Amino acid sequence: MINSLNLTNYKAFESQLLEFKPLTLLSGLNSTGKSSVLQSLLLLRQSYQQELLPNVGLALNGELVRIGTAQDAFCERAKEDYLGFEIIWNNGKKGIWRFIYDQIKTGADVLNNLDAKLPIDNVYESSLFNKRFHYLQAERLGPRTSYDMSDYQARRLGQLGSKGEYTAHFLAINQDKDVLQSKLRHPMAKSNALSSQVEGWMREVSPGTRIKINSNSDIGLMSLQYFYGDSNPYRTTNVGFGISYTLPIIVAVLASLPGTLIIIENPEAHLHPKGQVNMGELLSLAASCGIQVVIETHSDHVLNGIRLAVHGGKIKPDDVQLHYFQRQEKQGQAITEVVSPHIDRNGRIDKWPDGFFDEWEKSLDILLEPAGE
Length: 373
Description:
By secondary structure, the protein is an alpha/beta fold. The protein folds into 2 domains: 1-132 and 257-373, 3-Layer(aba) Sandwich (Rossmann fold); 144-255, no CATH class. Helices cover 26% and strands 25% of the residues. Strand 1 and strand 2 form a beta hairpin. Helix 5 packs across helix 6 (241-255) and helix 7 (273-288) crosses helix 8.
């Protein structure tokens, strides 16, 4: 499990140390660096998958993330010509990577490894690099009449795809396997089987939901149908975006074992407020089972779901890390600063910097004032 991440000369960060816990929440205004933090982890995994790490360099573009060119990745306030990433895991292992920024090759999409000959303490065995990993990006697949099959991704690697494109195939392969983490089992599900548990949690989003998986291996496609009680089956294109966006998250969480790393962008997308609260509680339960969850969110409802989970004793407050990204102007330059509020045992937060999930309160203050004539 990742304990900390230190970024040097990377995008908005000249130097930034971030602490990680079993559940880490990143929030803040748009374009303040939240996604950049997630991308730094994805860049390392992507470079390893492309066999550029440990020795060759950093792949800026690939299946997981597309940064662009070296100039796009480099902090314009940097005083030295390299990008640095340092990760410390809870087992004491440390990975330090430095990549040369060549002023002549600003258009390059691979940065050479400055420390290629230095051994790194078996960090490539960690969840950031192995099969116990899921990443679901903000732009997941919406309702589709069919979904791709991939034995390599869904069966061999156990992956859902960064857009959730292999979720149907993964669920078809694993639907009869039991959910092993008892804390994650939905109390109203018919059995401990993954398919039944997924339906149980999907009903928190859309009551009465049942799922049917259809496969056509001849053309390598899957399809999903949804039922509500005893209704006729509905195509995914007729049930809305919230179901399609939520399904990969629920499947990833329920199918994960302790030691898995799950990175999710905007888990609240297309969900109504109650569903967002339940999503926060589910992610908290996952983190309490030894699964590391890192999310980027703009939802106060997801945050409240986490706070309720702490208040209900479902996750320890010390297992939750909040980071709020804000932008300050200093000497004519926009600088990102990170504030890290703390949740106590009662689910209360010790500090609320301006902009930290306070828009509802600000709007209410205005509405409580008499309207002008």
